[in-house]
Specification:
The protein is mainly beta and 322 residues long. It has helices at 5-24, 218-223, 233-237, and strands spanning 28-30, 33-39, 44-48, 57-61, 65-68, 71-78, 87-92, 98-99, 112-114, 120-121, 134-136, 142-143, 164-165, 178-181, 187-188, 201-204, 225-228, 247-250, 264-269, 272-277, 283-286, 292-296, 300-301, 308-313, 316-321. The longest helix is centred in the first third of the chain and has 20 residues, at 5-24.
């Protein structure tokens, strides 16, 4: 049973109850976008809901600043339920730092979001954005509860600055293929990655594994590759949920120490596959699915995406993780 169902239902009902009131209240409008003043002292405003029955539509760019009554305000946030159920397909907000509760719930047409300065994504902010496939969020520190629930077309997320992921944070992101979890993350909520059925690579950067209950699917635990820092495999094998993965590989180390050939070795250095040995031989690099992505006599192979590869050198093969 999905974690904290009552909490989710209660919060969603609160968001629904606030839609009509939010849509009717605003301080001013500029270029088709409606704003509420947050602080006259700080001269900041937030985007709020459109009073139109249709709400916002199409492609929306939120400006860094906006003029009103001879004053210049910084646009700091997108308020709660501002775009709830609206027919927006692209939202660009270069200076916004916070996305509020349920801000984009059920924006079924939303495909692309650019929010490079956002540090906080509120609870259920993008819940049900089923078409969302591209999102720029390199500054996000907190991902709220249920923030990306049912974003079924999302294939990747940038978690480089994240320190906290709420429960159900990425629940049922069924197209998500890989996760790169930085060492700065201190909390991952229950079922944060439940029903993420397409995961094939999970990369962890903690030297001491984080104990959590993200509820990886059994099929993911059986088939996905868990990549961990060098020298930490034993620790991950002793810590839930990571010990559920059948394939745990230490970064920078091959799952086989060297090829079967006596003249060549294969290592990973600074994100590149490096071939060492006395003589140059033909090198072939394959994905786990059998696709050849490189063929030649290069001693250093660069530019391949993160993932697992099978490297063939002469008559020997080795599996590596980039």
């Amino acid at each position: 049973m999905k974690n904290d169902c009552l909490k989710l239902l209660f919060t969603m009902l609160l968001a629904l109850a606030g839609v009509a009131a939010s849509a009717a209240e605003y301080d001013f409008e500029t270029d088709g976008i409606y704003y509420n003043i947050l602080s006259e002292d700080d001269m900041t405003v937030e985007v709020t809901a459109s009073p139109s029955i249709y709400g916002y539509e199409g492609s929306i760019t939120v400006p860094p600043t906006v003029e009103h009554d001879g004053k210049t305000y910084a646009v700091a946030a997108v308020g709660s339920v501002s775009f709830y159920g609206n027919s927006v397909d692209t939202i660009v907000m270069p200076s916004v730092t916070e996305v509020g509760l349920s801000a984009f719930v059920n924006c079924y047409s939303l495909r692309h979001v650019s929010m490079p300065s956002v540090t906080t994504v509120g609870d259920y902010a993008f819940y049900g954005c089923r078409a969302l496939s591209s999102i720029e969020m390199q500054s996000v520190e907190r991902v709220g509860n249920g923030a990306f629930d049912y974003c079924e077309m999302l294939t990747s997320v940038d978690l480089r600055s994240v320190t906290e992921i709420g429960w159900d944070g990425f629940y049922s992101c069924s197209s998500l293929t890989s996760l790169d979890l930085p060492a700065a993350i201190t909390s991952i909520g229950d079922e944060a990655f439940a029903r993420c059925t397409s995961l094939d690579t999970v990369r962890c950067h903690w030297t001491e594994p984080l104990a959590c209950r993200p509820a990886f699917e059994p099929a993911v635990l059986d088939s996905a590759m868990l990549c961990v820092p060098a020298g930490t495999k034993a620790a991950y094998e002793a810590t839930a949920p990571w010990n559920g993965f059948k394939n745990i590989v230490e970064e920078g180390r091959s799952s086989i120490a060297s090829t079967q050939s006596s003249v060549s070795t294969v290592t990973v250095i600074d994100g590149a596959i490096v071939i060492g040995g006395e003589t140059l031989q033909e090198v072939e690099v394959y994905t786990p699915g059998g696709e050849c992505v490189h063929r030649g006599t290069d001693a250093r192979i660069e530019g391949l995406p993160h993932g697992v590869y099978v490297v063939r050198v002469g008559q020997g093969t080795v599996k590596v993780v980039l």
